[in-house]
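Incident review: delayed structure delivery

Summary: a single-chain prediction request sat in the queue longer than the usual turnaround. Root cause was a stuck worker, restarted by the on-call engineer. No data loss occurred. The affected request and its eventual output are reproduced below so the record is complete for anyone auditing the incident later.

Affected input:
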Amino acid sequence: MSPTAQTAAPGDAPAADIPGSPAPPDAPWRTTWRRLWNDRGSRFALLTAALLILVALAAPLLSRLGGWPPTAFDTSAIDPYLGGLPRGPLGGIGAEHWLGVEPVTGRDLFARVVHGAQVSLTIAFAATAIVVVTGTAAGIAAGYFGGRIDTVLSRLMDLTMSFPSLIFMIAMMSVAQDVNRVVLMTVVIGVFGWPGIARVVRAEALSLRHREYVEAARACGCGPWRILTRQVLPNISGPVIAYTTLLIPGMISTEAALSFLGVGVRPPTSSWGQMIAEAVTYYETDPMYFIVPSAFLFAAVLAFTVLGDALRDILDPQAGRP
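Output delivered after worker restart:
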């Protein structure tokens, strides 16, 4: 029997190991990861975002390592004869207080900042989850079913987007007093944020509902739920993931703005926006009190923005074209 007629025996090398044979294609997530990691700016943004998430998750541990809880006062770290300004250079930075202390109270800035990261990122991620789930469900339903469902949902999107959202957020946060501020902020921010992604998903669903594979699944007797979950949703996951990453910096900024205006989380719970608002009074006499939370807020918004832009270019390249 000639070698070409022999069948492959168990244990023979697979085709990918044979010299000259084509290599199997990489999984989509591997391709995305490789392109992100190979770009210097995207890699820096990814590492920064991962570090901030790790800081938020490990905030209690980090504050214990620093030796000070976020609500403890250290009167020995401030000078009562100078209006309560921190002792020492750069806002009291030293071995005992790694990022200095707050004026007047003497609370440790490192502990306040890492716990502020936990609050800010928790609200941002939770609000983003509400926005993505609600907007994706509404967009798919409007784009796939069309008709009255599309009309009703589209008008609801227009109505929600027509509200001056920031004013309504401030009003609702001011009226609600004895409630969990973190939960309330998450719900309020999520309620006003879903129409944007809903419109993106609706446009994608409109273009997919008459594709050949969708028509074939419909002809085979597949129900709407199976078609939406097996055919439509996987094919719009790229734009949704890219849009989700771009939503996060906006959510962080919104939470910081509400806390800066005094209607967000309340003391003693720390937040970057709240800390910046309190530091405005001391920006001349103790600039480090203003710089530290501002730097963390800037790094978070920049990292997630750059990461979102990179993911959009990879997963939804046509979205960035004019």
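Verification: The chain has twelve helices and two strands.
Action items: add queue-age alerting; document worker restart procedure.
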